[in-house]
Design a protein that fits this description.
The protein has 85 residues and is mostly helical. It has one domain. Helices cover 58% and strands 5% of the residues. The chain has a two-stranded antiparallel sheet. The radius of gyration is 17 Å and the shape is flat. The model has no long low-confidence stretch (mean pLDDT 89).
Length: 85
């Protein structure tokens, strides 16, 4: 890093990321789903497969089909699945 401000910004972003990872880990342990995915990294890898597409001329997004693992994650974090199906 060449600038002190850049280094401070990077540290801030890493701190925020650590908070998110800690929250994900705590919820996954509390809901006992961490064993299914092996780690937080495995849990996030499962979510990477989920995506949405917006076609030109259409205002509504089209979402990919949820896998069993993704459905488990969404339910554990109280995310309304009906919105994404």
């Amino acid at each position: 890093m060449h600038l002190d401000e850049s280094m401070k910004g990077r540290l801030f972003i890493q701190f925020i990321a650590l908070i998110f990872i800690s929250y994900i880990q705590n919820v996954a342990k509390e809901k006992n789903i961490l064993n299914s995915f092996g780690s937080v990294s495995g849990l996030l890898d499962e979510l990477k497969l989920y995506n949405s597409v917006t076609f030109p001329g259409r205002n509504k997004r089209v979402y990919s089909e949820l896998t069993k693992g993704q459905r488990t994650i969404f339910e554990a974090f109280d995310i309304d699945i009906k919105t994404y199906v």
